[in-house]
Specification:
Layout lengths: L14 H5 L5 H15 L16 E5 L11 H19 L3 E5 L1 E2 L3 H16 L3 H4 L1 H25 L10 E2 L3 H16 L3 E11 L4 E3 L4 E13 L15 E3 L10 E4 L13 E6 L2 E9 L11 E4 L5 H10 L34 H15 L2 E14 L7 E10 L5 E3 L2 E3 L1 H10 L4 E3 L2 H11 L4 E2 L1 E2 L9 E3 L8 E3 L10 E2 L3 E2 L1 H5 L2 H4 L6 H6 L6 E7 L3 H16 L4 E7 L2 E2 L16 H8 L1 H9 L8 E2 L2 H25 L3 H8 L13 H22 L3 H30 L2 H22 L4 H11 L14
Parallel strand pairs: 1-2, 3-4, 9-11, 17-25, 24-25, 26-27
Antiparallel strand pairs: 5-6, 5-14, 7-8, 7-13, 9-12, 10-11, 14-18, 15-16, 19-23, 20-21, 20-22
Helix pairs in contact: 2-23, 3-17, 4-6, 10-11, 10-15, 16-17, 17-18, 18-21, 18-22, 18-23, 19-22, 20-21, 20-22, 21-22, 22-23
This protein binds one RNA strand through strand 7, strand 8, strand 12, strand 13 and helix 11.
Length: 763
RNA sequence: GCGCGCUUAGCUCAGUUGGUAGAGCAUUCCCUUGACGUGGGAAGGGUCGUAGGUUCAAGUCCUACAGCGCGCACCA
């Protein structure tokens, strides 16, 4: 233990002198953190012997995105997790908490691209792949360092010797290994399908990366026009909010039982729609609702997921009329359009929509125009309007049966069973329902992204699409002429491996050495990434290791601003936890985030609350001073108490009243220990606050003043014991919540002999 | 459409397995140089969303409804 900082220039312990001044978190916290870190106790392998007897406790830090700095939500996460880690450590568990950061592929690239565009007016294509990646790496290095320092400032007792990054070499090997294995099992495939295309980010995204926004839109009802051969008006009208996509229609679908349309089923028509020749077949499909619109649906297989699926059922052709920049690739151009207002080709979809409507009106085909509300799909990261496009992409098959440890199963089933069997417990429980609901609606997971930052897909091609010209492997194939796939993987593919890629997997030797930590004991994270991350970790771990990634999931809520808005950069309502720490101290920030906020519940930031806990820190400090000053002549007594002398051996030395106080504290300790085991930190913190202030300080300390002034020797002796007995336990109990100040006081009272972080939790 | 959450003091929220309401902040009054960059004491303020039900007893369990928020699906 480093003594130097605890001594003044004359080599005397200066703790008492510090104790004479008000508590100053700024000069205390960094020094205490350094002491902890130097002790090596953040690493479970280096813990004192006592602290390993309770079995392992392991937890990964949900790696923060390297897009920017942390916000108060991250601070809440770090506070809860550090409480868990410190409690486990004090309970004698071999405690491992692994730090790391997430490359957050799309998000990070978007941030850096935006910055370059703003400052230099250049696009990623101007820079090229290598240069852009260099720029991103530089950005990531900076943000990483900021994030790490924030984690330290909050006092997190995390094992820095095992820090990982989702995009480092070890994690890359894990990713390639997982990909290869899934491919070999037929669970990863390449398919030509309609995917969610983000024209703004120029990449595909998964279903989960879409956000919906309700907007007003016009629903147009019209007929396609006259049949080119017979001149007959195509008899069925359809309704749509996107007339411009109808240039890509290849069928009209009606309900098979709809009497109005039965006679037309199987007929085929040819027409020219807004300058684009189309061929339509009338098909019957039970998914069409007779009651909606005209009861008939124009089928656009290339630009709608639902229509694509319908086209698969009926063997309909696919016709793409919109390109990657969300511009029309078909229809009237400047030359063929009868009027300039009808030009469609080359226009953005929104403008093309107006052109098509203008044309419909001119042709007398438009029957109805009504305003409706509907959801439009936006890319979560870029805000771009999603354009469903047919593309050749890589997918994880969630419904495909495969052989898993001798049993037929699917990935969906594996995900479901991990929770339904109780192997994974979710707190609060209600999220289990949400989880199942998500799984029931799950479709194949599109994992390829057309961005440059991320894990490159471990697939190589030679000219031609023949199977012998495609190579899937952990390492590049030998021989000339192989080109690696340009695409990268969805960032959640690598984070899905996090609980075991951080423990050495796929290196068998290393992973075996860490086997006691997996499945991890606890996964603490925000409920907003239940699907993105928690579900994907369960998928990967169950598939690759045949076991759950963690036993318990504790979901915390979102921290919102005072107007109940989500904290986000675009709103500019982010509060830097560091500012709050400077102002009020890390302990106060932690307490204010934790008290009264149960799992799964969102909370609001409130500076007044942080301030209140700074006052509490000050109160605690002054209780410490009082105890110190009134027990100072009994160094031996102090060390005796702080060596955890059993209370039963002290009972006879307590007066009747003091024994009652001691018993009351024991009762409280038993109570809160039970609540700690149930993860009810929000209650424990409040109870300790209340006890320290309104029982210990307001009652016992006030009463002690009289005793130390006028009491008998027996009473004085008893009271000294009592104060030490209570305060010792209280400091231990408060330590997970307010680690800095409790450590500092504890060192003062034990003359720098003991480190509270590795002291025993006493129920 | 399916599902979830919230509705408790002016504000922000607790309230473990049912036993006649709590905390912080805010407000008012009084006291205090004290271990306290203040602290202590006291006060005011709640038909616990509405209506039923179960029970000796319901903020707490059940049903219905309302308002707000959210997730998923649909979105022709």
């Amino acid at each position: 233990m480093d003594k130097e900082n605890d001594m003044d220039n004359n080599g005397k312990p200066n703790i008492p002198e510090r104790f004479l001044k008000p508590y100053d978190p700024a000069t205390t916290e960094d020094r205490v953190y350094e002491m902890w870190e130097k002790s090596g106790y953040f690493n479970p392998d280096k813990l004192p012997e006592r602290n390993g007897k309770g079995g392992p406790f392991s937890m990964v830090l949900p790696p923060p995105n390297v897009t920017g700095q942390l916000h108060l939500g991250s601070a809440l996460m770090l506070a809860i997790e550090d409480i868990m880690a410190r409690y486990a450590r004090m309970k004698g568990k071999k405690t491992l908490w692994i730090p790391g950061t997430d490359h957050a592929a799309i998000a990070t690239q978007a941030v850096v691209e935006k910055e370059i565009q703003k400052k230099e007016g250049k696009s990623r294509h101007d820079l090229g792949r290598d240069e852009l990646l260099r720029r991103i790496d530089a950005h990531v290095k900076t943000t990483h360092d900021v994030i790490v320092s924030q984690i330290r400032k909050l006092g997190c007792s995390i094992d820095w010797s095992r820090e990982a990054f989702t995009l480092d070499d070890k994690r890359n090997l894990a990713v390639r290994t997982a990909f290869k294995r899934m491919y070999d099992d037929g669970l990863i495939y390449r398919g030509f399908r309609v995917v969610n295309w983000d024209p703004k980010g120029q990449t595909t995204i998964s279903d989960d990366e879409i956000e919906y926004e309700t907007r007003k839109a016009k629903l147009y009802t019209f007929k396609y026009g006259k049949d080119a051969k017979t001149g007959e008006l195509i008899p069925i009208a359809i309704s749509t909010t996107r007339p411009e996509t109808k240039l890509g229609d290849t069928a009209i679908a009606v309900n098979p039982d709809d009497a109005r349309y039965k006679p037309f089923i199987s007929r085929e028509f040819d027409a020219v729609f807004a300058g684009e020749p189309i061929h339509l077949k009338i098909v019957a499909d039970p998914s069409v609702e007779p009651g909606f619109g005209t009861g008939a649906l124009g089928v656009t297989p290339a630009h709608s997921m639902i229509d694509w699926e319908m086209a698969q059922r009926h063997g309909l052709p696919l016709k793409q009329v919109i390109g990657e920049y969300a511009r029309m690739t078909a229809g009237f151009d400047e030359h063929s359009a009868p009027a300039p207002a009808f030009v469609v080709k080359g226009k953005k979809v929104a403008e093309a929509r107006e052109a098509v409507v203008a044309w419909l009106k001119a042709e007398g085909l438009l029957e109805k125009e009504e305003e409706i509300e509907h959801n439009i799909a936006l890319a979560q990261r870029t805000g771009g309007v999603i354009e469903p496009l047919p593309k050749l992409q890589w997918f994880v098959a969630v419904n495909k049966e495969f052989d898993h440890n001798g049993q037929k199963t699917t990935l969906k089933k594996l995900m479901k069973e991990a929770v339904s069997s109780g192997a994974v417990k979710i707190i609060p429980e209600r999220f289990e329902k949400v989880y199942f609901n998500w799984i029931d609606n799950l479709r194949d997971w599109c994992i390829s992204r057309q961005i440059w930052y991320g894990h490159r897909i471990p697939v190589w091609y030679r000219e031609g699409e023949a199977p012998e010209n495609i190579f899937i492997g952990i390492d590049a194939p030998e021989g000339d002429g192989w080109m690696q796939d340009d695409d990268t993987l969805d960032t959640w593919f690598s984070s899905g491996l996090w609980t075991f890629s951080t423990l050495g997997w796929p290196d068998e030797k290393e992973f075996k050495a860490n086997k006691e930590y997996h499945p991890t004991t606890m996964l603490e994270t925000g409920w907003d990434i239940l699907f993105f991350w928690v579900a994907r970790m369960i998928l990967m771990s169950e598939y690759l290791l045949g076991e759950a990634p963690f036993k318990t999931v504790y979901l915390h809520g979102l921290v919102r601003d005072t107007k109940n808005r989500k904290i986000s950069k675009s709103l500019g309502n982010n509060i830097d936890p560091l500012d709050m720490i400077v102002k009020y101290g890390a302990d106060a920030v932690r307490m204010s985030l934790v008290v009264g906020v149960g799992p799964g519940n969102d909370s609001k930031i409130d500076e007044a609350k942080i301030k209140a806990y700074k006052l509490f820190a000050n109160k605690l400090w002054n209780i410490g001073r009082f105890v110190f000053e009134n027990t100072g002549d009994g160094e031996d007594l102090r060390s005796a108490i702080f060596d955890l002398r059993p209370k039963s051996s002290m009972d006879s030395e307590f007066t009747k009243k003091d024994k009652e106080y001691a018993d009351r504290l024991d009762e409280l300790m038993a109570e809160i220990t039970g609540e700690m085991d149930e993860y009810k930190f929000y209650i424990v913190a409040e109870k300790l606050y209340h006890y320290a202030w309104h029982e210990l300080a307001d009652v016992i300390l006030e009463e002690s003043k009289g005793i130390f002034r006028d009491g008998s020797e027996i009473e004085k002796k008893s009271r000294r014991r009592l104060l030490l007995y209570i305060f010792d336990k209280l400091l231990r109990a408060l330590h997970p919540f307010m680690p800095y100040i409790t450590e500092e006081i504890y060192r003062a009272l034990t003359s720098g002999q003991k480190m509270l972080m590795v002291e025993e939790w006493v129920a």
